[in-house]
Amino acid sequence: MGTATSRPARQLAMVFDLNKCLGCQSCSIACKTLWTDGPGMESMWWNIVNTMPGGGTPRDVFSHGGGYRDGQPVPGKFPAQREYGEAWDFDQQAVFSGSERIPLHPRERDGSTPSWGPNWDEDLGGGVYPDSFFFYLQQICANCSKPACLEACPREGLYRREEDGIILIDEERCNGYRFCAEACPYKRIYFNPQRAVAQKCIACYPRLEAGVAPACVRQCPGRVRHIDYMDNKEGHPHKLVNEWKVALPLRPDFGTEPNVFYVPPLAPSAFNEGGEFDDTKRRIPAEYLREMFGPGVDAALETIEREREKTTRGESSELMDILISRDWNKLMGPFTQNPAELIRPPVTR
Ligand code: SF4
Ligand code: SF4
Question: Is the pTM here over 0.85, yes or no?
């Protein structure tokens, strides 16, 4: 078990390619059905995909504080349940058996109309027409190297695994204080009101131990997600983060050194007044991308464009081969075991 300051022997890392996400939420559903269908977990989305620019999940996700600035902890707050979005009800009975046509409108548990929820502003995006733009942002716990959540807990209720750097919550030790949820600047910790414990993404560690990739990685039809140990020099995370430098941390200013990285979105050029593409003007404002992914984003986009042009000319590009994910298995690093081929223990009733 590691502390907030000790570094694990190996660090698991993931890279999400924002240029390939379909916004289909297959990852979210794969995670939800596997891990968060228990009591009190109705509103938990350990994995969620939101349209950006947008409010995110919970609402205004990056404005709740937490993390570090100049090495010092930043006070954070725990968002209210409604800011995450409650589990909605639908009057399906009325729709299927009613004589009149009734729209399938969601309702909060108290009968009111929802005012926020996961990916609430789906596909709204930003920019001024005709230079409109959006991209999908996937979020899970980033198993940070400086995990503010772990440091904030006075009961050592969180710990870091020595073998892969995954941060886990010991529910036996958790007293439900929610300090960890306040401290996480990405708001990736949920509170289970029925069990009075904090819960979060566990990086599918039981699957990893069986050589199986996390459900969100394996179920992604867009081949968006790459996983491996960072010290594997042939692994995609090492190549994309350290060699090609096209995968960047989300909001690096939060200071937690996340181990989930993002290939930033390349959008078409902006239009000029004549309605033609202006190749000197990016559609997505550079300031916004720098705020999201740090100062390395300009060089990362230039590298992606340069390598893409090489393949257009018929030349080979290692970077494009990785990003295209021609070989699905390579996305999963050492975790290529097909879960359907694992021998399941007999079910005891
Ligand atoms: S993303 Fe949040 S919950 Fe996950 S390790 Fe980092 S600080 Fe902790
Ligand atoms: S499954 Fe893949 S493509 Fe679909 S929303 Fe998730 S990351 Fe995007």
Answer: yes
